[in-house]
Amino acid sequence: MRNMENYHSHKYYTNAIYRDSPTSYERYIDRCIELGQTVITSVEHGYQGNYWLLNELIEDKNKEFAKRRENGEQNVPHDLKFVFGTEAYWVKDRHEKDRSNCHIIILAKNENGRKKINLALSKANEDGMFGGRPRLDLELLLELPKDDVFITTACVGYWNKYDDIEDITLKLHKYFGDNFMLEVQNHHTDKQKELNKNILYLSKKYNIDIIGGLDSHYIKDDKYGRDMRDRLLEDQNIVYSDEEGWFMDYPSYEETYKRFKEQGVLTDEEITHCLDNTNIIATFGNYDMNRNIKLPTLYPDKPQEWKDNLFKQIINKEWKRFATQEDIPKEEYPMYIDGIRYEVGEVIKTGITDYFLDHYEGLKLGVKKGGKITKRGRGSAVGYFINTLLGFSKVDRFKAPIKLYPERFLTSDRIIKSKSLPDIDNNIDRQEPFVEAFRELLGEHSIYPMLAFGALQKSSAVKMYMRTENIDAEIQNEVTKQLREYDKAIKHCETEEEKEDVNIEDYISEEYVKYVELSKPYQGIIVQKSPHPCAHLLLNGDIREEIGLLRCESKSTGKSVLTACIEGTMADHYKFLKTDLLIVDVVGLTEAIWERIGKPSPSNNKLEKLLASDEGNKAWDIYANG
């Protein structure tokens, strides 16, 4: 029985560039299994998609298959294959104001291909942006390793912009050879029929192979496919006139063959050949996307023992400084030293002293460059006294008014078993000095903000559904008014679990609850991207190549920001180092006040003593006397 692979497909992560699909990775995986196929690609318009998540979902599904086989189950599906790629935009010269934005499919055959595609897309985001789109050009395309990538001409959007497109196509084929194919599609439009005729002509004239692409945007032509996509587009007043008459679903091999046959351009032999060629893509993959801890180091040429000794020396030096500055009584030394020895021992057992050395030098240099860090602390890190010695806070857990448990921050057993990293949250006045410091220490492309995807939540899904269904304006206004209270309740939740406990039906009149139910299929659809407000990825090496960059607009500043193409959850799962640099305005204000009065800002211990003094009582009197 013949089959094919659907390499040219779009999921709802494509909406981060522009709205085009309502369909999740999970639904594509289910359809792939249903049809007996194996490949799901990360192809999205203009970028790589949330490819770390797609790879994880496929790995999880393959683990499930393996368990079923171990349990003796018969007819378990074949393992799935993740293939990294993109449907990129390209122009002749990315530095020109050219709105052509031609399309091209680029897939990675192996790890080197993945990295080089990442690098090319990163450069497109660095200096190839125009009209809100990152654009490759012929220079970047011809820098890709010809033996490690696979190229197709995508859709009609490849062909209809340049008069010399035939010459460009020949240049690409000459460079990429058999790794370049002309993509035919089975739409029954006049434009596609004429394009397919021209593709067949070029294929025979220049001996360039053909391949059959689907260009799927959803699974089926039903209310969860075409109808949902139409509503997503209508909500943003988007009309793609060129798509009239296109097939945009995910059909079987038999249906795909039938559509080509009914199109009446390709012969039976050509149809079979172009669909057989898609199976080449099942041989791609095997990327190095492992779950090992990826901890950058300032000392790549030094053994672990040397770094452990350096860590001990720094802690010893900073303890002496702290004891002197804080006037720690000699009789309390044993309590502190026992605590320090315990914490240092736990860190060394884990083999992650680089984590502390990186932050020690990075934050210290950031302060030298004019940055300011909170003197108090946030999260579990304040429970580790060595974090205070290293300058990450000024909280003394031995003197804190409430008991702080170091085990909440780090135990060697937990770190080793989970292969995870601890998490230090840094409240700062501004990010630039600290980012500059880490770049100076680790390399120009060693740190970038992480990516955050925005999805339709319950409230926004209800509003979108009502708008696109043309519900009476008065009803829309009333429901929107009621949803404001729900949104306010969600805003004050600190965790996702707390948000789940807030029942939207409690805030909407019973007569309007039906719109909540009707909008449920839209909840969770990705509709935007933005820089994470505080999380930054740190890496030895070039993030542009290892991860990829994507340009986003900051919600808080409106500025264009280059972000690493990975979200926080995936960074945790794949064991990358992320550091939180959270801007808290009061940090800068507090430091500015102490500078203004000509005194150093005190540690927690000194502040407690100050507040208990006559001078401190004057401060309390301000509040007492109104």
List keywords for this structure.
626 residues, alpha/beta, seven-stranded mixed sheet, six-stranded mixed sheet, 24 helices, 44% helix, globular
Topology:
Elements: H1 25-34, E1 39-41, H2 51-70, E2 81-83, E3 85-91, E4 102-108, H3 111-127, E5 129-130, E6 133-137, H4 138-141, E7 149-152, H5 165-176, E8 180-184, H6 190-206, E9 210-212, H7 226-235, H8 253-263, H9 268-276, H10 304-325, H11 333-350, H12 353-368, H13 385-389, H14 412-418, E10 425-428, H15 432-442, E11 447-455, H16 458-468, H17 473-491, H18 496-501, H19 513-518, E12 526-538, H20 543-546, E13 549-553, E14 560-567, H21 568-573, E15 577-583, H22 585-596, H23 604-612, H24 614-624
Parallel strand pairs: 1-2, 3-6, 7-8, 8-9, 10-15, 11-14
Antiparallel strand pairs: 3-4, 4-7, 5-6, 11-12, 12-15, 13-14
